[in-house]
Amino acid sequence: MSGFMTAAAAASAALFFVLWWMLQSEENPWVPAGLAASVVMLVAASARLAVARRAGTRYVRNQHGREWRDHSMQRPSGKVMHSTTLHAAGLRALQEQSAEADAGDFPPQAHRDLYDLCSDYLNGAEQALQSPSLPAERRLALRSGQERVRTLQKHHLLIWARGSARGFTREAQQRVRLYEKVETANRALECIDSALKIYPDEEELKISARAVRDFITSSRVAHWVELAERAAFKGYYRRAIDRYRDALFYLTRDGPDQDREAGAQRIAREIELLRARLATDRATTNSSRTTGPKGHGQ
Length: 298
Prior knowledge:
By secondary structure, the chain is mainly α. The protein folds into three domains: 1-54; 75-200; 219-280, Methane Monooxygenase Hydroxylase, Chain G, domain 1 (Up-down Bundle), CATH 1.20.58. Helices cover 87% and strands 0% of the residues. The chain is built from ten helices and no strands. Helix 4 (84-103) runs parallel beside helix 6 (136-174). The longest helix is centred in the first third of the chain and has 43 residues, at 30-72. The chain is flat, with a radius of gyration of 34 Å. Mean pLDDT is 79; it is low at 55-73.
């Protein structure tokens, strides 16, 4: 940033001397030259301040989660698992980090990092269990630790999926364009689907996935219904019918659903009304064409 201001100062000085030289025939040429140079410096300073503010905002937003990941996360290794004392200390540290994440307002990514830590613990424990020289009491302690960590692992993955999906869905709701809504909502769906691959029987994830898909469907239907209503208002009945058909396609694409049947019936009624209007307009047009010349001949 200091290089930027140095370049701005050099450009300002060059502009000052160029203008001063060009305006020597004028009275007090240094006044307009100084004003122009000052404007250049003011613009540069404003740009620098704006960039600094954006950088500061990003730092404050990310600092909390980053510091927690940098200072709290320690990955257990297979060698640690061979020692009863070190294994107990590693398990206790993992449980403390889990409790800290649950108690604090940490971002979803922190819970995903904890899930990865649990995976590292389980891998290290599995490596230690494969050793034939491992005493029976340590083997028992490792298996007990694995059960606890598996519970923590699932817990934090579900929190990550739920929090990430909720954040992306809120962001999608604030979007104006349909493709932006759908694209952002699909990112929420990707988070849920990645968790479902690991826990396919988790009902909470299935409910969340259905909710996001319903949001995508309702956004598409609302988009096409709005276009249909605009077309009908302008008298473009055929175009309105096509738009309603598009809305009906997205509404019924995923198969029969009791909650969507009422909406589909309303759209079907609108299509029938528009067809009736279209038929009436055609009949009126044909009648005027038929009676028009006769009336003129009479």
